[in-house]
Design a protein that fits this description.
Pfam families: FlgI
Organism: Novosphingobium rhizovicinum
Subcellular location: Bacterial flagellum basal body
Number of domains: 3
Radius of gyration: 33 Å
InterPro entries: Flag_FlgI
Order of helices and strands: HHEEHEEEEEEEEHEEHEEEEEEEEHHEE
Strand order of the largest sheet: 2-3-4-9-6-5
Shape: flat
Protein name: Flagellar P-ring protein
Largest sheet: 6 strands, antiparallel, barrel
Distance between the termini: 32 Å
Length: about 375
């Protein structure tokens, strides 16, 4: 069996040179702290100052109602009049309120057209409130919008890039209400693993208890409870000291297959028992190369097109069995590469090996 030169060279380099020490991920990279989370905000508003690319009033009645209500609040009564402006667009406003955001701080907002506006380029968002799911007002947004896309058209052609009806306002909202949470007075705190695993949770608890004995307790494969009693300090100080501890993360053997794109991703613990694999298929190729047949000079014939059809059949002859398997991911990849198959053929091989009971891993098809 002949292995690809790249893998062989990599293997030789690993044998000849000492590999640098592996730095595992930090605790802060693999867990989420209880109640330290973002909150989604949503609002409704008007973008003004558009160069004729806004909503057509008759097609978007909610835009007209919003304009009338806004002008009435400013002391302008236009009830009963016919509005024809196309410089205004009704938009939805979304934002993410980060944890521990204080009053007066600013956050980014995303603005998206609701009506038939063709572009928000050059517009300005009028002051609009942003609410949480509890109905309370948490921020107020206003400012000029920044559109990354554009659209231009003429009588017979048009060109567009990106989405011109979606825009962003950097630091466009001011936080008016804080989400209350007193972390410093909490008696304990729970660390939630983003990828629950018994081994990883136990390693986190052991690493914390080695530094601060009696501080951590593993509740389940997704939760580690931390109390400051064994550390002799506040909970905030304890979390700041343990979140940089490095942990060796354990993960189950898994193969993720995306059949739409032909992508195969395998974790480091995937193993295949020694099996023999032969990959081949029947390929039939039909090609048409018609030729023109002309009669001899001064003859009473006609020029005709003569069909020429060529059929080729490849039944996979000449391909032999190959041994696939190994105790490490590099050996497994080398064995699969030796088959010389495409990624889509590799998907079929892995599924067949799983059916044969030789694949010790879970297969997830997306």
């Amino acid at each position: 069996m002949r292995f690809p030169r790249l893998l062989v060279c990599l293997g030789a380099a690993c044998l000849s040179a000492a590999a640098p020490a592996y730095a595992g991920p930090r605790i802060k990279d693999i867990v989420s702290v209880e109640n330290v989370r973002s909150n989604q905000l949503v609002g409704y508003g008007l973008v003004v100052g558009l160069a004729g690319t806004g909503d057509r009033i008759r097609n978007s009645p909610f835009t007209e109602e919003s304009m009338q209500a806004m002008l009435e609040r400013m002391g302008v009564n236009i009830r009963g009049t016919q509005m024809r402006t196309e410089n205004v667009a009704a938009v939805s406003i979304t934002a993410t309120l980060p944890p521990f955001a204080r009053g007066g701080s600013t956050i980014d907002v995303q603005v998206s057209a609701l009506g038939d506006a063709s572009s928000l380029q050059g517009g300005t968002l009028i002051a609009s409130v942003l609410r949480g799911l509890d109905g309370q007002i948490y921020a107020v947004a206003q400012g000029p919008v920044a559109v990354s896309g554009f659209k231009a058209q003429g009588a017979a052609a048009s060109i567009s890039r990106g989405v011109a009806t979606s825009a962003r306002i950097s630091n466009g909202a001011i936080v008016e209400r804080e989400v209350p949470y007193a972390l410093s007075t909490a008696g304990s705190l729970k660390l939630a693993l983003r990828n629950p695993d018994f081994t990883t949770a136990q390693r986190i608890g052991s690493a914390i208890n080695r530094q601060f004995p009696g501080t951590a307790k593993v509740l389940d494969p997704a939760t580690v409870e931390v109390t400051p009693a064994g550390a002799g300090g506040s909970l905030v100080e304890l979390v700041s000291r343990i979140e940089n501890l490095e942990i060796e993360v354990d993960q189950p053997a898994k193969i993720v297959i995306n059949e739409a794109s032909g992508t195969v991703v395998m974790t480091a613990d995937v193993r295949i028992s020694r099996v023999a694999v032969a990959q081949g298929g029947l390929t039939i190729s039909v090609s048409e190369t018609p030729e023109v047949s002309q009669p001899a000079p001064f003859s009473d014939g006609r020029t005709t097109v003569v069909p020429r059809t060529q059929v080729e059949v490849d039944d996979g002859q000449g391909r032999s069995l190959a041994m696939v398997g190994g105790t490490s991911l590099s050996q497994l990849v080398s064995g699969l590469n030796a088959l010389g198959v495409s990624p889509r053929d590799l998907i079929t091989i892995l599924q067949a090996v799983k059916s044969a009971g030789a694949l010790q891993a879970e297969i997830e098809v997306q």
